[in-house]
Fold this sequence. Notes:
The protein is mainly alpha-helical. The protein is built from nine helices and no strands.
Amino acid sequence: xxKRGKATRGLIKExxxxxxxEKGFKEVTMKDICEITGLSRGGLYCHxxxxxxxxxxxxxxxxxxxxxxxxxxxxxxxxxxxxxxDVLRRYKNEMIDxxxxxxxxxxxxxxxxxxxxxxxALYEQYLLSYASWKRLIQYGIDRGEFNQIxxxxxxxxxxxxxxxxRMYSKLMPVDQEVPGRMLKEIRKLFVRQxx
Length: 195
C-alpha cells in the first residue's frame, strides 16, 4: 500500500474511533464514516468493507501500540518505574476521559456473534495485553525495581479496574479522583520501597 493509501486508512480509523467512542459500535454506519471523513462510499469501500473491519483494526492497533511502547522503552534500558508511571498516568487520563472511551463499543462489538467466530477475539486481545504487561513486570523484578508479585493477579487488577471505570463512566458520573486512588494503590503493589 502506498503512502497516500496508508494516510487515508489512518484518517478513516482516527475519525471512526471518535464516532465509536461517542455512539458505540452498533450505531455507527459506513455512511456516518463517509460523512465524517469526507470520502465517497466508493472511496471508503476501497479501504474497508465494513464497520467491523475498521473497528477490529483500531483495537488491534491499540494493542500493538502498547506492546511496542513497552518493548522500545525496555530496549533503551529505561527504569521500569518510569515506564510504569508513564502508562499509569495515561490510564488515569483515559479513565477520566469518558468521551473518548471505546469500552462500550468494545462490549458491543464483541457481543455480536459473527465478531467472535472461532477463537474469542476479545480474549486474544486480553492475552496479548497480558504478555506485554508480564514482560514489563518481569523486567522490573529483574532490575530490582518491582516487588515479587503475582503477575496474573496484578494484571487482572489493572485491566479490569481500567476497563471497569471506563465502562461505568459512560453510564454514570464517576468522581475524577477514583482513577487516581485506584492507580496509586496498584503502583504500591509494584514498586519496591527502600529500607
